[in-house]
Design brief:
With 257 residues, this protein is mainly α. It has helices at 9-32, 44-57, 60-91, 93-106, 115-122, 126-150, 154-162, 167-203, 210-219, 223-251. Helix 3 (60-91) packs antiparallel against helix 4 (93-106). The mean pLDDT is 85.
Amino acid sequence: MRPLEPIGQGMRVVLGISFFVLFVLGWAYATFGGYVSRTFLADPLTMVTDGWTLLVDQGFLLDIGVTIWRVLGGFVLAAVVAVPLGILMGAYKPIEAFFEPFVSFARYLPASAFIPLLILWAGIGEVQKLLVIFIGSVFQIILMVAVSVGSTRRDLVEAAYTLGARDRGIVRRVMIPANAPDIAEILRLVLGWAWTYVIVAELIGSSSGIGHMIIDSQALLATGQIIFGIIVIGVIGLVSDFLFKALNRWFFPWRLA
């Protein structure tokens, strides 16, 4: 191994799968070997059995669908608001000076802290959960997009002015295309964060979703179901991450995704 030396795609896949195999083997050794009580940590076979029961007998697929809808709904709302505002902040310094202090302040506020207020304002329905994801995502996207657009190469901007471009043309024809791959990568990263917010939202005042199943399983000490729910979240996140990367490669083939 050498620093920054690339490896083949086949080796990357083998190494990635190897970690999961070793992790499951260690988990099985700890539980089947009696080193950890199965009351507090279910073994892999129990987890699979409980997961199958959830899917077949308890309608867990509906909970998965509800959670995916909440994540995508809140995330899309945040992106629709944050990306244009982030571009404007990155392109125009007066707009940045106006919004940046508040955005920097708000992005440190944990989305979970707003849940009691959001329940008072919007009840315990879908709007409250969408707003939790929106609040947790929007300020992060705004600031990251603004930083990306604000770091546009000056030579590209100056070349566009030399060729007769106007201010709006600079933003539309230079800044946005130059930073579109980075903006897409920012959205991919923040989508992963959105999953943490939806589970927090579903742990309180929810009657459906993966988080609701997890909190119900905790009361029953059904650690197999809890672990299965966590694994489902990870698998969905992994699939969405690969899909995002594939879309980035398709839209921006000149950049590595």
